[in-house]
Amino acid sequence: MAKYDYDSYTIYEMKRRPVYAIKIRVILTEQVHGDVLSSAAAKAFKRFPYYSRTIVLSENAYLLLPSDKPIVVMEGDHVVHLGNEESNGLYFAITYENNEVYFHFAHNFCGACGAMRWLKATLWQYLTDLGYNVDKTGIMTVDTPMTLEEVAEPDVPSLPQGEAFGNLVPPMDSYIPMAEYIERMKDPNGVDGYFPIRIPKREFMKYVRDNDGSPNSVIASMLFKMYTKALPEEKKFTGGITNNYRADVGCSQTYRDILRQMYVPYDVSMKDWPIEKLSTYTRSRMYLLMQPEISWDYARKLDQHRCRVDAQPDIESKVTYAIEHSLTGDVPSAFHVSYVGKVEWGGLEAYIQGVFTLTVSHLLIEINATEDEFCISFQTLRKDRKYLDEFIEVLDEAGVSYTVDEYKERRIPQIVLP
Length: 418
Known about the structure:
By secondary structure, the protein is α+β, with helices and mostly antiparallel strands. The chain has two domains: about 150 residues, Chloramphenicol acetyltransferase-like domain (Chloramphenicol Acetyltransferase), CATH 3.30.559; about 230 residues, Chloramphenicol Acetyltransferase, CATH 3.30.559.10. The protein is built from ten helices and 17 strands. Strand 6 and strand 7 form a beta hairpin. Helix 6 packs across helix 7, helix 6 crosses helix 10 and helix 8 runs antiparallel to helix 9. The chain is globular and about 60 Å long.
């Protein structure tokens, strides 16, 4: 088994790869009261001691140590530095502007799914402190007991052995927009944003059901069609779809981000397929890749990888090994889809107008949902609407209603390590 804290191992990759920061934008119905939010955030954060930790370098390894410092709440939508004095050394912080609250955090602790617990607890406490009577169904408040299931991690030696049926090897010849990444790297302060898209939830779910799909499979199919319009000269496009495999490894309630990628290959011969056929194909591929046997094998590989990181003699060697042998991002993909899934908002739903998850990415579609809408972050390095216009064309052809807001800067937090 790996030697150190389960949440610490992506820190080595974070040392050189600035792709592990997340920001969740929540649009409220009313102007934010900063002083009330600051007090409420401090109360709510105490409910999650596993987030109230700082990173230290010791024994040539990164360690996570408890911190009793309060979470920082700042006014203004700006780039927050996590891990230094600006955030009290914590890797969670909150900013706000007008009627919007932004939740910033490092991915090694959790993803958007786990962070939703902290987000909902904070907003519930804030609204309660303002004097509202907010139903807390589905919300962890300060008085909600913490359970062992909440902090569970995979017990790798106890995982069953099993051979997956039809385990699929991901293709390695997909188009990837490398030239656009390179252009972005030349100008670190350049374009880096997203288009917020809203789709009526009830209407879209009917469309999904009518087309033999899930939100993941339908959006992936639409993104493939988008590419065939935007880049008709290209032949193959592999889509990455995030799979939460916590339940497969006995951790269905954990806060931890236990994710892996499923890869679906598409090629130009499918460009005229209807969405229903593409979705059926996508779901069949997903079905094979969601087998628990694959999750068990992945968990074992991940643990072996971490043991090999532990075996490196110094911090730089650990960093180099972790990056060169990373199990994430090893397949060239044209796009990625990440869907948080159903969120129990309880009494919060009356106060929330939108929720958008933002990450470091290009053509990664993050999907959240309020009670009435799917809130999609169409993340791109392009302000000129290439890809977006083609995606909208696909929505139009499908007869799906939508609204698109203006391009917005992401202002993703930066992670500072010791």
